[in-house]
Known about the structure:
CATH topology of the largest domain: TIM Barrel
CATH architecture of the largest domain: Alpha-Beta Barrel
Number of helices: 14
Amino acid sequence: MNILIKQAHIIDSKSAYNGKVMDVLIENGTIKSIKTKITPEKNVKVIETANLHLSNGWLDMQVSFCDPGFEHKEDVDSGIKAAASGGFTAVAVVSSTNPTIHSKAEVLYIKNKTANSIVDVYPIGTLSHKQEGEDISEMYDMKLAGAVAFSDDKKSVTNSGLLMRALLYTKNFDGLILTHCDEKSISNDGKMNEGVISTKLGLKGIPALAEELMVDRNIFLSEYTNAPIHLSNISTQKSVELVKQAKSKGLKVTASVNAYNLALDDSALSGFDSNYKLNPPLRTKEDIEAIKKGIADGTIDTITCDHRPQDIESKDLEFDFASNGMIGLESAFGLINTNKGKIKLETVINALSANPRKILKLKEPKIAEGEIANLTLFNPSQDWVFEKKHIQSKSSNTPFIGAAFTGRVIGIINKKQSYFTK
């Protein structure tokens, strides 16, 4: 189907049309024409709505589709629907499946199962064999099969020698290590951020130090090996400062934050709602302000939703025993845009589109005539209420049902396919 997008505000720093309001005609999956006004012909679907914005398709670097092994929580098909509904034309899926994505076979399973989907799905292989933290995984074979990076997901690599060897090894084939920063001997099975709120609630706290020590160590190892490293899920003021210092030294360090750590502080746990039990935990208001500043000045490169589907049996129990995580793909943009404060919209869009592709060394789409259409359409000023009907995931572990957001996704176009929200 041919599509004509009318009067769209274009956000693409590499495009000659950046910042302009244009009509965009897409024929057979290719951007055919970009003009101030295009008259629609027959057999053309016209997209026209108030304050329509158009950017390159968004990519989330940290998504769990639970497939294979945990399909009762999510599978590839439902995950793709959730991603499309949230405005993402691409996702990188974490290795915490059963079996883990630890060899060529699991990478090819994901690639083959998603080959024809509207959302590009990129596997992240394990850093250690089966996420056991002892031996390096078959990273080179996985890279050749299509893995875009390597990580043990939320299992922090406590063995410094293993991480050092992994960084050295990946330099040989231009690989990338992603690390979750959590010193387990300090976090010690804590349930929420350590502070005034945890004391009031009587819940075991997770000190910010547990994250910050690992951020510092991982930066040191990156510097020693002269290898790139991506620090996932940073959540504290000190972590942001450490990343900023590393970048000022010219080190090959990038970082991401989760959308919920941009929007929520630890006071949200006062009602013991297990949907707020997360890893990293919700931190303080001061940490949120530091994160916002870090996004605005470029210290933090990307924003992820950390989509973690959990079934009722994993969440509907006492707080101490509930599993970490919330779903986030469908509500991500509304949550981020509503809570972005003084962060410029273009900075947010770059954190969702251009920057993750740079980090993962993927080809960046471009809004220009003759280019393949890989696009996200959205209205940053639309007020709406997130309801259960908006959830495409198999799971519904989110505290945001009933939440009012500003900024809504209208649809995506990718691989000669389109999806528009209702």
